[in-house]
Amino acid sequence: RALAAVGKSRGRVVLVCGEAGIGKTRLVDEFLAAASGRARIVWGACDDLLTPRALGPFRDIARHLGIEAEFAAGGATAEMYGALLEALDAGTRPTVAVVEDAHWADAASLDVLKYVGRRVERTRVLLLVTYRDDEVTADHPLRFTLGQIPTDVLLRLPLRALSPTAVARLAEDHPRSPEEVYA
Prior knowledge:
This protein is of the alpha/beta class. The chain is 39% helix and 16% strand.
C-alpha cells in the first residue's frame, strides 16, 4: 500500500523494527525483490563502528543515484540534503530508499533522515528504515529524529518473535520437537 501511495506522489516512511535476528533485513529484501519491477531501489547502511562513517547510509545511496560528488566535500549542508531529495524523486518510477540499521546512525545521517522524512510526502519516495527497537531507548537520538517525521507519512512495522504455539503450528512436519525448533 505504501508503494502504491508513493506512485501517486504521496511519499511515505516505513519503519521496520525488531530485535536482532528477527528478520528485518529478510523482510525488506523480499519486499525489494517484489517491488523491483515497479520502483527504483537504492540502499545504504549504518555500521556499528567506534567512529561511525559520517553520512554513511546516505553516501551509499548517493553512489547508487550518481550524486556521490555532492557528498565528497565533507560536512553536511542544506544544499546536499536538497540534492539528495531531488535525486531520490527523479526519474519515471517511484524510488524505494532503504536505510539499514538506523540505530547505529551518526548525527549527520540522522539530520538527513529527518530532512527527507519531513519532506517525503510531496515526492515519489518510499523511505524504508530498519532498526533494533530494543536498542533505541527513550533518550536515543534516533527516537527524537523519528519523532520529527509527520505521523501521516509514517508507517510502523514492528516485528515480534513467534510464540511457542505459533512455532509448533509451523513446525508440525519438522523432525524435531516444537520446543527444540522454538529454542
